Amino acid sequence: MAVKTQVSTEIDLDRPGKQQGYLRVPYSHNLAGWAELQIPITVIANGSGPTLLAIGGTHGDEFEGPVALMKLARALQPEEVQGRVIIIPALNLPAVRAGTRLSPVDGMNMNRAFPGEYNGSVTSMIAHYMTHVLMPLADIVMDIHSGGRSMVFYPCATLHRVPDDAQYARMLAAARIWGTRYVFIYTDVAGEGLLPVQAERMGKLVVTTEMGGGGECNPGVLRVAERGIRNIMIQQGLLSGQIEVPPYEVTLVAASDPADYVAAPADGVYESLFEVGEEVRAGQMVGRVHPVERCDRPPEPVMARTTGILIGRRAIGVTSQGDVVATIARVVEG
Ligand SMILES: [Zn+2]
After folding, report:
1. How many CA atoms lie within 13 A of 306 on its CB side?
2. Cα distances (angstroms) measured from residue 232 to each of 177, 181, 242, 270
3. What element of type H or E holds 279?
4. How many whole angstroms from 298 Cα to the centroid of ligand 1?
5. Mean pLDDT, residues 109-120
6. Which of 61, 253, 254, 259 could covalently link to 149 via disulfide, CB atoms 3.0 to 4.6 Å apart?
7. Whole-prediction pTM value?
8. How far away, in angstroms, is 88 Cα from ligand 1 center?
9. How far is the centre of ligand 1, averaged over its atoms, from the C-alpha of 295 (Å)?
10. Alpha-carbon dihedral 85, 218, 114, 162, rounded to 10 degrees
11. Tens-place pLDDT, residues 276-315
12. Could you give the domains of the chain?
């Protein structure tokens, strides 16, 4: 049965070969009453094998995913592939163009918009199409994130502890070959409607990451992302070749306690006393918030409540009360 959606495409998702086109989303605005948003999509299919849905630009201020996937979309040829690869380098295209986390078109966070709505705003219509058309076709859903403008992460593959043990084991095996020192099990502390959670509920092998951040496209981190994509494709039988193992042991870490996510107690400029990857201890000061207007007052201390590795920290100096400025993860058994 055809899915009811307002998003259309000239791409035939079942056709072998390489096709490049657009997801066309109705977008009526002040300067164009009849208009559409054109989100680039590449589909490369050959023979039988799994389907990988590879997504970048879910947040518009995270650039390693979009660049790695644009390069893949240009380079990958059907004869190299066993199965199907669907590549969307800039899922939230208006946000990527603007370099913002949220869509400038409707103010929505694509990673809080799932499962989406048939007749919602632009972001919501895209999410609805992903949920009802593309995700059902996929065996593997890859959503490449970084810290964005506001955060910096020690680059890591990430995953949720999904309740299905077999699904979790497959996700963990994929995360382990992404090629980062840490595999980070995270908890959702800022709302619902995440793209990976939607894919997890549909039973998919979900691959996600937090690759660096600060709003840049870091060359070292980009290399890790490109290697990760290739490793996953080889592991899943989509591509032949050798998995490139990084020269270090992979450590599984988790921030499963809400206390691992440390929020700023006040407005001001945040000074982190640690860099990501360093160990911090419960009760230790991890940073300070300086009240810019008052040099006569001491800065507000920010204390770690748990012991572990600083896996993420705030990237922007100017900080508001309630912004998470430090995320602390502990080594756990796989
Ligand atoms: Zn993100």
Report:
1. 19
2. 7, 16, 11, 37
3. strand 279-280
4. 34
5. 96
6. 61
7. 0.95
8. 15
9. 35
10. 80
11. 999 999 999 999 999 999 999 999 999 999 999 999 999 9
12. 8-254 (3.40.630.10), 259-331 (2.40.50.100)
